[in-house]
Design goal:
- The protein is mainly alpha-helical and about 70 residues long.
- It has one domain (about 15-65).
- It is built from three helices and two strands.
- The chain has a two-stranded antiparallel ribbon.
- The chain is globular and about 30 Å long.
Length: about 70
């Protein structure tokens, strides 16, 4: 994944227990602010996504594992 690309994978559902999207592991604030963030900030968030899925007990989507 290009680290400044949006991690959106056409599946957006916020998991109430964690506050993370089940499709991309971003918070609702990160999703709504994404277009206004610097590419450095986007890359910083993208670097944490697989860890977020794992820590939240959410299965990591295959799209994140294909790099």
């Amino acid at each position: 994944m290009n680290l400044s690309m949006s991690p959106y994978i056409s599946f957006c559902t916020i998991e109430p227990r964690t506050g993370l999207c089940l499709g991309c592991a971003r918070t609702l604030t990160e999703i709504t602010d994404w277009q206004f963030m610097s590419s450095d900030k986007q890359a910083e968030i993208n670097k944490t996504l697989i860890q977020r899925f794992t820590e939240a007990g959410i299965e990591v989507p295959q799209a994140f594992l294909n790099d």
